[in-house]
Amino acid sequence: MDTMTRLSALLADCMKSLWPEAEGLPAAEELRGLLAVPPDPALGDYAFPCFRLARPLRTAPPRIAEAICAAWSHEDVAAVQPVNGYLNFFLNRVNFAAETMAALQAAGDRYGASDIGAGKTVCLDYSSINIAKRFHIGHLSTTMIGHSLKRIYDWLGYTTVGINHLGDWGTQFGKMICAYKKWGSREQVEKGGVDAMTELYVRFHSEAEKDPSLEDEGRAWFKKIEDGDPEAMEIFTWFKDVTLRDAAKVYDQLGVEFDSYAGESFYIDKMEPVIQELRDKGLLVQSEGAWVVDLSGDNMPPCLILKSDGATIYATRDITAAIYRQNTYHFDKCLYVVAYQQDLHFRQIFRVLEKMGYPWAKDCVHVSFGMVSFEGEALSTRKGNVVYLEDLLNQAVARARDIIEEKSPNLENKDEIARQVGIGAVIYTDLSANRIKDIDFHWDRALNFDGESGPYVQYTHARCCSVLRKAGNPAGAAPDWSALTDDEAQALLRLLSRFPDVIREAADKYEPSMITRAVTDIAQAYNKYYYEHRILDGEPAQTAARVALTDAARRVIRTGLWLIGIEAPERM
Ligand code: ARG
After folding, report:
1. pLDDT band at 375; cut points 50, 70, 90
2. Is the Cβ atom of 338 under 6 angstroms away from ligand 1?
3. Is the CB of 348 under 6 A from ligand 1?
4. 299: alpha, beta or left, given left = phi > 0 and alpha = psi -120 to 50?
5. In which band, very low, low, confident or very high, does the pLDDT at 57 lie, cut at 50, 70 and 90?
6. Residue 161 C-alpha to ligand 1 middle, in angstroms?
7. Pocket flag, ligand 1, residue 128 (CB < 6 Å)
8. C-alpha angle 189/192/197, rounded to 5°?
9. Which of 102, 226, 266, 336 falls 20 to 30 Å from 396 in CA-CA distance?
10. Judging by DSSP bridges, how do beta strands 290-293 and 284-287 pair with one another?
11. Which residues is 161 bridged to in the sheet?
């Protein structure tokens, strides 16, 4: 049992014995949630606000605090002081160190893992790129937030399904085939990949301005795709393959994988029954020739289902996809990691699902996020100001390589480590702030080995590894945990002991940045410890304790980095 859990259990017992008759007192679990870490360590390791008890006990909080202090008998866990309606707990440092280290050592590499998700399934829709378009830096957030959430849920024992809901349906693909047939060649597309397809698409538009009949031809090709014409399908499928082949390079760099690539076109033959269901349930109304679901009661514009020409749209496919996912995976949660611009879209489709009578509609969540700008400039395709993710990643690796060359010229495997550090720097930046905040990417910040950055955390991990290498195999001395009672060790232990809570909170709030914060804090606390204390040259039992603490920090940093999708090299 961790210290906070024990403390709250003791607090609950103490309250029960003081006020056996009182009703509505919080249970241990709620008490645990109320325990706070005071900003100033002089106010204790944990503080408990007695205000929550005022009403059930009909007593002023300062009186309650005094009564509990007078009855508190567990000096082995914590001494307690009443201050202005707060109980300030001072942990018994040796016991706290011993308990925390026992928990860390027992869990080993799986510290913070859990089975709270056993038997539950989470679908995650992320990255979800569009066919024939290049990956730009704007796709980074959906890809990395989704990937990280998947690992977090995996770690908590959930079954996860990572879905790349490809944008692979729309009239533009008819136009592209038309352009390809007129001006393109197989070699050109094979070689040029997505860029060649984009060129064809751009050419189509400029030629269509001169010759509007091209639009009809484009539509005719799209119709052929819809009808499953073999030639159209062959080209369309090949465009998809080429796009995914290009995207795979980026996914490989980032270490991202998916369980399913069922995109929009996957749902084409599954929409009819859903549209019929909407009709049967009396939800489809006609509006200016189109069929829509009226959402005026929810203060939203109508959700378009069928255009006046009978064509389905993005929303129709998303509604169908949600139902398919529920029927196929029986998800307990379906997360859509998509930029905030699509907020209305998701509110609409979730509401439509609810109106259809699906109770699980409430388990669909739009995990939205802000924009990424680059060196202070917003990225807009219109201004031609696009940074391609592949270029950004390659540049990050090259820059990391230069820094490593300068700092550690004798390192082995410099290329491999530069890759881990460069990519890690980009991912860290992306996951460093609350996801809804806009992110401004700056090279000097991302690759600052001394600031709050991926390389800084990785470096700390490598430092722990180096200490452990120097320590060698500790010759059997049993660790003396009283060597870990100094302020720096205690601060580090406190962060390590909270780490499992942070993972659960990150999952509850869909917020990988909480893990980024936690590993950064742990890295900083370890470095502080490292500078203030001699780890290796004390008494064997003390050294054993300090080495064990180093090993615990190493494991937790490694796990934290893994949870946000960053590798942890052992040397840097
Ligand atoms: N392909 C879409 C886009 O790039 C994102 C799709 C998100 N997922 C979904 N189920 N709608 O805007």
Report:
1. confident
2. yes
3. no
4. left
5. very high
6. 16
7. yes
8. 55
9. 336
10. antiparallel
11. 123
